[in-house]
Amino acid sequence: MKEEFKDYYIPGDQTMWSGRVDGTTLEHLRWHQVISTLDMQHAHPLQDRYVLVGFSVDEGVFRNGGRTGAAAAPDHLRSILANLPLHHLDPSKLCDAGTICCPNRNLEEAEQALAALVSSIRKQGGIPLVLGGGHEVVYGHYKGIRQTTEGRIGVINFDAHFDLRMPTESGANSGTSFYQIAGDEAERGTPLSYLALGINLISNTRALFHTAKALGVQWIESQDFHAGNQMTIAGQIDNFLREIDHLYLTVDLDVFASPFAPGVSAPAYRGILPDSFFYEIFDRLIKSPKFLAFDIAELNPQYDIDSRTARLAADLLFRVVQRHEKK
C-alpha cells in the first residue's frame, strides 16, 4: 500500500465480523468464524484467496445528482456476509483487506487509493472482491487491475446505465468510469472492451447511446434480457469472451427491478429480474477461466427494505466464492 494513500485506507477489522454460531465443526461454520482480516500496509501470502475490499465512497453519486448513502454499504454488507454458511469453501480462502474511504471528498485520490490496494492484492496473488460504494468504484478497481495485468481486459457491467458521461468541472462521478477507462485505453493504443447488460432505455439519453456506438460498446437492453432471447444473449457473451484475455465483472444493483433491489442510489422502474435466467448468465461469467475480479456497487442501506438489496448482493458474492467448489 503506497504511503501517500494512507489517509484513505482503513485496515481490516475483526470486530466487524460477528454473527450466529451453530457449532465449531466444519459443517457448522459461517463466514464470520473463519474470515481473516488484513492490514495491507504489510505483505501477506494471498495466492488464490478471495480478498474483500470496501469502497466506502459515494462522492461520485453526489456529484452525479443521485441519492447518497452508498458509502455505508460495505460495512452493512459485511454484516450480511458474516452469517453466510461456509459450505465447501476452504476456510483459509476468505479474508477482508479493509476499506478505502474518502474523508475529504477527494474522489480522485480515493480512486487512486483503491487502485493501489487492488494492485497490491493482485501482486500477492489474491482475487479482489470490491464492495462499493457508488459505481465510481469501477474506475479505481479497473486501474488497479490494469497496473498488474497484460493483455486485453474486458468489462461486463450489469447496469441500467452506460456510465459513459464525460467528467464535468466538478470532476469524475459515478457515471463517468467507462468514459475514463476508454480514454486510458486509447492512450495505451487499445480499444475499450465493454459489454453492458440490462441497459434501461429511459435511463440513458440519445447522446449516451451515440457515445456507446462511437466507442464500440456492446449492450443488451433490459427489455431484451430474458430467457426468450437466451441463445442470442449467450452468443453475444461468448463472442465477447473470445475477444478478451481477462474478464472483470461489475454489478450495479440498480440493474434489477426495484421490488428486488429497492436500496440503490437510482432505483430502476423496469430493471431485470434476478431469476433463473439471470443466474444462468451470471454463473457462466464467474466460471469463465478468464474471470479476474468482481465488484458490487450502488447498495444504499438507507433505502433498503428488509435488506433485500444487500441480501441479493450477498448471494452474488457467495456464488463467486463458491464457483469452483465441489458440491
Features:
single chain; 327 residues; alpha/beta; ten-stranded mixed beta sheet; 10 helices
Structure report:
It is a single chain. The protein is α/β, with parallel strands linked by helices and 327 residues long. It is built from ten helices and ten strands. 32% of the residues lie in helices and 17% in strands. Strands 1, 2, 3, 4, 5, 6, 7, 8, 9 and 10 form a ten-stranded mixed sheet that branches. It starts with 8 loop residues before the first strand and ends in a 5-residue tail after the last helix. The relative contact order is 0.15. The mean pLDDT is 95.
Describe the SSE topology:
Blueprint: E1 9-10, H1 31-34, E2 36-37, E3 50-56, H2 59-63, H3 73-81, E4 94-101, H4 107-123, E5 127-132, H5 137-146, E6 153-158, H6 177-188, E7 194-199, H7 206-214, E8 218-221, H8 230-243, E9 246-252, H9 276-286, E10 291-297, H10 308-322
Parallel strand pairs: 2-4, 3-4, 3-5, 5-10, 6-7, 6-9, 7-8, 9-10
Antiparallel strand pairs: 1-4
The share of residues in helices is 25-40%
What amount of the residues lies in strands? 15-25%
Low-confidence stretches: none
Structural class: alpha/beta
Total strand count, please? 10
Specify the biggest β-sheet: 10 strands, mixed
Q: How far is the N terminus from the C terminus?
A: 37 Å
Q: Which whole number gives the mean pLDDT?
A: 95
Q: What is the overall silhouette?
A: globular
Radius of gyration: 18 Å
Order of helices and strands: EHEEHHEHEHEHEHEHEHEH
Number of helices: 10
